[in-house]
Design a protein that fits this description.
Blueprint lengths: L4 H7 L2 H21 L9 H15 L4 H28 L1 H10 L12 H4 L1 H14 L3 H4 L1
Helix pairs in contact: 2-3, 2-4, 3-4, 3-7
Length: 140
Amino acid sequence: MSTNIAQAYANAGNSGQEFIFNLALFLANFLSNHVHAIEGETHQSGLLNAHFYLIKVSQVEDMEIFKICLGYWSKLTSELFEISQKSTMSTGPSLTAAGASSGGKKPTTAKKSRKDIYVNVLSNLRLVVIERMVKPEEVC
């Protein structure tokens, strides 16, 4: 996983660039359609590896590839945000009361939430998006 895909894309010929373009399409489409099926404990390392590869592909300096990746990232983050909002609404004020009644201890759950699975992926994605943002001097 140490391959710098952005550099490989810049140094590649047409066939190498086409391969990376197709890799972006494959990862984005596969994850869009099957992410829920592979989020279980048994496939979690493969799931995270696929997301980290998509992060590396997102760093490629090609707008079409970035748009493909951005489409998937938008879908994933909006799903995670909706889940986060629903859980916040359902555990609003009663969370404080539950914490107080259990002696201040947090209830433990055996299963990770979706947001917890993607913490490192989202952190790396944040860096990529900030890096790829339009800079103010480019706007002028």
